[in-house]
């Protein structure tokens, strides 16, 4: 290990490794520290990637079951859990191994260990398997230590039946019954996986709806599907106690989700807790620097992602929401450009959010919900997928595309999509918002037929009251 470096990045998730790679590409001498054998962080080892591998399998299972409606009948699927796990692990190993190679090719010093601060210019690094810390001095450090699962307040139960996202991604088995606590991204994605594999899934969410914060018209379409795949979706309901019993975990609920006469206690084979994530800001020795942590535990940064300590930057989940991989990577690039002496700021108009359920739900830029909160006047142009030829050929009319537009400038401020493939489609929305496109730009851009992307163009036509596939009678003068 060298004794000094120009830039050291602490944490090799999508924020940290993207920053380290970019810094090396700009000619800086770079060290990257992480406890794992290769870069990847939460996203590659126990987040985005393994969950999407499992969700792909869930999609295949769901399609195969539905194929009956088209005259193609498969037998009940036989699920080999060990092979399923092996597929997921292979994907993770291939990607993280590839990142290890890319790190070597860039001549980055990859240190497998855990870092803490001795002062604002020195790290103490304990390599994996060693007890003695080594020191590394730096000109600039980037903290990219990410986040970890939140736990349920007041619940102290320790049980292999009680899972967080990490253990759920290991798919220990297909439980007969699974309770998912929290109807957010993780709960709905992993709930979809387990339901497709054959578990009876119940979702309990403390707020009045799934995915709080997302636009209700989009969520309602997804919620119908979630309800049909689940045993029950209990809204406005909390878990107040859990205890291990002979055949599972007995859970006590409190709230409006259960009928008044129903038992408040139910037993599940497994419980997945997915109630949000907490930033890893308790980096050892951080108090020996001027870095500030806010009341919610996030490290405070300026627009260039510099902390209150000029030699130290911070990026990714540890600096705030949205806790998304692509947001972390982009912040990493901004921090590196700032270290390189450029005047930069992380000020995106649109950070896309995608929930990879079935159907997928995606949005970017201004949402209708936020526009209402801000009392900002907007026009909403919606295109229902029942009017899309492509959606009909897929037998998936359970979708909607909507544009959030400025009524005066006709500028596209936000885009929301629910439907299969929404996660891919939203990229066009991000480009429209970032490029300042208006409804005419989107309407006049020729989209390929028959594709779901046409729904974006036709939403813009709806704005002008002239969508080819939606008839709106003329108003009488
Ligand atoms: P992380 O990926 O959390 O990486 C931080 C790294 O720092 C870790 O490897 C950690 O071990 C290391 N570290 C911590 N402390 C130290 C220390 N003191 N010294 C050295 N190393 C340290 N986001 C998406 O955009 N799309 C998705 O589809 C998606 N799916 C997800 C699914 C699941 C189940 C989960 C849990 C998350 C998902 N996310 C998704 C969120 C995404 O994983 C995070 O937003 C992203 O990983 C954050 O990147 P990061 O670089 O900030 O930190
Ligand atoms: P989340 O914030 O998305 O959802 C948590 C849900 O739990 C919320 O709906 C909340 O109201 C509910 N909740 C909180 N406390 C509760 C309680 N006591 N009882 C019942 N419900 C409760 O959090 P998550 O699903 O754990 O995911 C964490 C973060 O990871 C996400 O916010 C996202 O940033 C990231 N992530 C992203 C993706 C993706 O991009 N596709 C996938 C997974 C995770």
Describe what this molecule looks like in 3D.
With 477 residues, this protein is α/β, with parallel strands linked by helices. It has 13 helices and 21 strands. A five-stranded mixed beta barrel has the order 1-2-3-4-5. The protein has a five-stranded parallel sheet with strand order 7-14-8-9-10. Strands 17-18-21-20-19 form a five-stranded antiparallel sheet, with helices on both faces. Helix 3 packs antiparallel against helix 4 (81-105). The chain starts with a strand and ends in a 14-residue tail after the last helix. The chain binds flavin-adenine dinucleotide and nicotinamide-adenine-dinucleotide.
List the helices and strands and how they pair.
Layout: E1 4-10, H1 16-25, E2 30-34, H2 41-46, H3 48-66, H4 81-105, E3 109-119, E4 122-127, E5 134-143, E6 147-149, E7 162-163, H5 165-169, E8 177-181, H6 185-197, E9 200-204, H7 216-229, E10 232-234, E11 237-245, E12 248-255, E13 265-268, E14 270-273, E15 277-279, E16 312-314, H8 325-339, E17 353-355, E18 360-365, H9 368-373, E19 379-384, H10 389-393, E20 400-405, E21 412-419, H11 422-434, H12 439-444, H13 454-463
Parallel strand pairs: 1-2, 1-5, 2-3, 5-16, 7-14, 8-9, 8-14, 9-10
Antiparallel strand pairs: 3-4, 4-5, 6-15, 11-12, 12-13, 17-18, 18-21, 19-20, 20-21
Bound molecules: flavin-adenine dinucleotide and nicotinamide-adenine-dinucleotide (NAD).
């Amino acid at each position: 290990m060298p004794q000094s470096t120009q830039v050291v990045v602490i944490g090799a998730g999508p924020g940290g490794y993207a920053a380290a790679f970019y810094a090396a590409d700009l000619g800086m001498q770079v060290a990257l520290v992480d406890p794992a054998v290769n870069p990847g962080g939460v996203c590659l080892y126990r987040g985005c990637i393994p969950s999407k591998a499992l969700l792909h399998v869930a999609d295949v299972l769901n399609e195969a079951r539905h194929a009956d409606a088209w005259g193609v009948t498969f037998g009940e699927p036989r699920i080999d859990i060990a092979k399923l796990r092996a597929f997921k692990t292979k994907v993770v190993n291939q990607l993280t191994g590839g990142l290890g190679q890319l790190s070597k090719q860039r001549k980055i010093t990859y240190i497998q260990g855990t870092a803490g601060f001795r002062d604002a210019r020195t790290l103490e690094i304990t390599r994996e398997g060693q007890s003695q810390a080594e020191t590394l001095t730096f000109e600039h450090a980037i903290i990219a230590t990410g986040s970890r699962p939140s736990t349920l307040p007041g619940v102290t139960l320790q049980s292999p039946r009680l899972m967080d996202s990490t253990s759920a991604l290991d798919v220990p088995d297909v439980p007969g019954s699974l309770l998912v606590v929290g109807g957010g991204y993780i709960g709905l994605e992993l709930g979809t996986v387990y339901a497709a594999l054959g578990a009876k899934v119940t979702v309990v969410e403390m707020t009045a709806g799934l995915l709080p914060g997302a636009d209700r018209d989009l969520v309602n379409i997804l919620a119908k599907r979630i309800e049909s795949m689940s045993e029950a979706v209990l809204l406005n309901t909390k878990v107040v106690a859990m205890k291990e019993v002979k055949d599972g975990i007995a859970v006590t609920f409190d709230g409006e989700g259960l009928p008044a006469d129903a038992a408040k206690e139910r037993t599940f084979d497994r419980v997945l807790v997915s109630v949000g994530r907490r930033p890893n800001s308790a980096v050892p020795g951080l108090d020996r620097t001027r870095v500030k942590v806010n009341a919610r535990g996030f490290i405070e940064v300026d627009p260039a992602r510099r902390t209150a300590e000029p030699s130290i930057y911070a990026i990714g989940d540890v600096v705030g929401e949205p806790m998304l991989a692509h947001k972390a990577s982009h912040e990493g690039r901004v921090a590196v450009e700032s270290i390189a002496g450029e005047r930069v700021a992380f000020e995106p108009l649109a950070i896309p959010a995608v929930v990879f359920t079935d159907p997928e739900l995606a949005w970017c830029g201004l949402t209708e919900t936020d526009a209402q909160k801000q009392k900002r006047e907007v026009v909403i142009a919606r295109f229902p997928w029942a009017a899309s030829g492509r959606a009909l050929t897929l037998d998936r009319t359970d979708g909607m595309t909507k544009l959030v537009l400025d009524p005066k400038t006709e500028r596209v401020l936000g885009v929301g999509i629910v439907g299969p493939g929404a996660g891919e489609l939203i990229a066009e929305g991000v480009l429209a918002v970032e490029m300042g496109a208006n409804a005419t730009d989107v309407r006049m851009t020729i989209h390929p037929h028959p594709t779901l992307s046409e729904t974006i163009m036709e939403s813009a036509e709806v704005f002008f009251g002239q969508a080819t596939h939606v008839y709106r009678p003329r108003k009488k003068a």
